[in-house]
Design goal:
Elements lengths: L11 E4 L15 H6 L1 H7 L3 E4 L3 E2 L11 E5 L6 H13 L3 E6 L9 H6 L13 E2 L19 E4 L4 E4 L14 H17 L3 E4 L26 H4 L5 H11 L7 E5 L5 H8 L8 E3 L23 H15 L6 E3 L8 H4 L8 H13 L4 E5 L20 H13 L5 H11 L2 H4 L30 H6 L4 H14 L1 H5 L1 E5 L6 E7 L3 E8 L5 E2 L9 E5 L8 E2 L4 E7 L1
Parallel strand pairs: 1-2, 1-13, 2-5, 5-9, 9-10, 10-11, 12-13
Antiparallel strand pairs: 3-4, 6-8, 7-8, 14-15, 15-16, 16-20, 17-19, 18-20
The protein binds alpha-D-glucopyranose.
The site of alpha-D-glucopyranose has 9 residues, from loops.
């Protein structure tokens, strides 16, 4: 057996800096705030912090539109602050992984400002420009944030491509100069002390330069050409080059965000001998409750456990021994897991949050925790659409309700409550003081009103809290090597209420059992003599009777 790499035994915690901790009263989180909270993260026990973008940005998409890769967003702090963060984290033996957004920049990036000047500008080919075809867009591609993926620029009479908002022009990876500029920038960050990269929509960087139409586009609904553009013709060539020139030069952690990948694709990106990335974020389990009416994530469907098990198990089995899974329930783009796959009612919130954590953390792969997940933060439901800030949510509302009139305002709000990215972006709930201890000013996005009950101070005071349960799971991952290496096997695949799986090595096994309902259920499973229960969200053990949202894990020798 190959020796595990450090990042295979690590647990990652995602910080969304805007919403984590404000220290200067401007209502927006900042880097000094992250430094202030490092002891909290250390107490939780995580190994790596993934920072969503902190670079300079006009914030059309909360920092995923970067105007300078080598400068810090002034509201977040300075270059000196980020270096202080690296140093303070390293002193605590924590690593920092930066978000890297190189499929596109902001239209306010100096490269784009140059590029749009003239057709012969040296930066022209840093982006993707095309002539109009019959006075229209070069093809029918749809932006992931609604509308078309091409914007016309009067100055030179051409269109530029933007898979996201028109303030996020796509970079032209066909251009070797652009690629070298990106690698230089990445190497510069490594010199500053960064320990890894999470690469935003990295499987979109190679486009089919013939620009064929996307057969799936339907502007009458809410289309996106993202998946059509994904896994393009030269993507592996580009990533191998990046690996050779940057990633292989240091012992870092890398994870690529890759919409639309299958396990076979993932093995191409992350196979142990692929020389590209270490892990990808796949999306299959996050789309199982998508709209049945072709509206993508704009839906209010409840998920089906059999589907969830099928998808997660497929990934566990397909990558075993070949590549490495990332394990996540939620992030800054997805609803809160306890609201989505658990039960946020007061009687069940803590139980179901612990149950979900158990199911994820015992799988093979590197677990990612999204800020606030460890205290069971829930989705948000603002009364008024105008309270939302997320460009994706506001565009979809405009598109489906105002322009197309295919969804009523009331129905759309149920979709927003279910799927909006702002569900995960409400500020971190630290304590019971005004604005939940997040800021002394007015928060950029309104705090969830449940903060007097759900907050870090309460969690840290209660030895039975979700926080301490996560702490135990993380500690177990560092202690029980079977959690890292064991093979995965799904049992009772058709059981619509209970998730049971095994992890197996040559000499031991783990049996993970999780009740996804608020009912008491009876289930048959074999427990060899000498089994010990390593963790559970209930104190006592009632054997084959599973109480509401009960989760338990047994260990035994084979
Ligand atoms: C990724 C990010 C998301 C962003 C998009 C465009 O999906 O996670 O937040 O809006 O890429 O950069």
């Amino acid at each position: 057996m190959m020796k595990n790499k450090w990042w295979q035994e690590a647990v990652v915690y995602q910080v969304y800096p805007r919403s984590f901790q404000d220290t200067d009263g401007d209502g927006m989180g900042d880097i000094p705030g992250i430094i202030q909270r490092l002891p909290y993260l250390k107490k939780l026990g995580i190994d790596v912090i993934w920072l969503s973008p902190v670079y300079k940005s006009p914030n059309a998409d909360n920092g995923y539109d970067i105007s300078d890769y080598q400068a810090i967003q002034p509201a977040f702090g300075s270059m000196a602050d980020i270096k202080k963060l690296f140093k303070a984290a390293h002193e605590l033996n924590l690593k920092i992984m930066m978000d890297l957004v190189v499929n596109h920049t902001s239209d306010e990036h100096a490269w784009f400002q140059q590029s749009r000047q003239s057709k012969d500008n040296p930066y022209r080919d840093f982006y993707i420009w095309r002539d109009p075809v019959d006075g229209h867009e070069p093809n029918n591609w749809a932006s992931d944030f609604g509308g078309r993926a091409w914007a016309f620029d009067e100055q030179t009479g051409q269109y530029y491509l933007h898979i996201f908002s028109k303030k996020q022009p796509d970079l032209n990876w066909e251009n070797p100069k652009l690629r070298q500029a990106i690698y230089d920038m990445m190497n510069w960050w490594l010199e500053q002390g960064v320990d890894g990269f999470r690469m935003d929509v990295i499987n979109l960087i190679s486009k089919d330069m013939q620009f064929p139409d996307d057969p799936s586009v339907d502007f009458g609904k809410h289309s996106s050409s993202m998946e059509m553009v994904a896994n393009g013709p030269r993507v592996h060539e580009f990533l191998r080059e990046m690996n050779e020139k940057v990633l292989s030069q240091a012992d870092i952690i890398t994870v690529g965000e890759t919409p639309g990948v299958t396990p076979a694709d993932a093995i191409k990106y992350t196979g142990f001998d692929a020389h590209e990335l270490q892990m990808v974020f796949q999306f299959e389990h996050t789309v199982i409750d998508d709209s049945k009416d072709g509206l993508g994530k704009w839906s209010d469907e409840r998920f089906d456990l059999v589907d969830l098990k099928r998808v997660l198990s497929k990934w566990q089995v397909a990558l075993d021994g070949k590549a490495w899974n990332s394990l996540y329930w939620n992030n800054h783009d997805r609803p809160r897991v306890v609201s989505r796959f658990g039960d946020e009612r007061p009687a069940y919130r803590e139980l179901s949050a612990k149950m979900l954590a158990t199911v994820l953390h015992f799988m093979q792969g590197t677990p990612y925790i999204y800020q606030g997940e460890e205290i069971g933060m829930t989705n948000i439901a603002y009364d008024d659409i105008n309270e939302y800030q997320d460009i994706d949510t506001l565009n979809a509302y405009q598109d489906l309700v105002v322009n197309q009139k295919i969804v009523s305002p009331e129905k759309m709000m149920t979709y927003v409550y279910h799927s909006s990215r702002d569900n995960a972006r409400t500020p971190m709930q630290w304590d019971t003081s005004t604005q939940a201890g997040f800021t002394t000013g007015k928060p950029w996005l309104n705090i969830n009103k449940n903060y007097p009950q759900i907050n870090v101070a309460n969690a840290v005071d209660d030895s039975n809290s979700i926080f301490y349960y996560y702490q135990r799971l993380i500690k177990l991952r560092h202690e029980l090597s079977i959690m890292t290496t064991g093979h995965y096997e799904l049992l009772a695949a058709d059981d619509a209420d209970v998730y049971i799986y095994k992890r197996t090595t040559a000499d031991e096994e783990l049996l993970v059992i999780a009740n996804f309902t608020d009912k008491k259920l009876q289930r048959e499973f074999d427990l060899p003599v000498g089994s010990t229960r390593v963790i559970s969200n209930y104190v006592d053990d009632t054997g084959h009777t599973l109480r509401p949202y009960e989760a338990k894990v047994y260990r035994y020798d084979k």
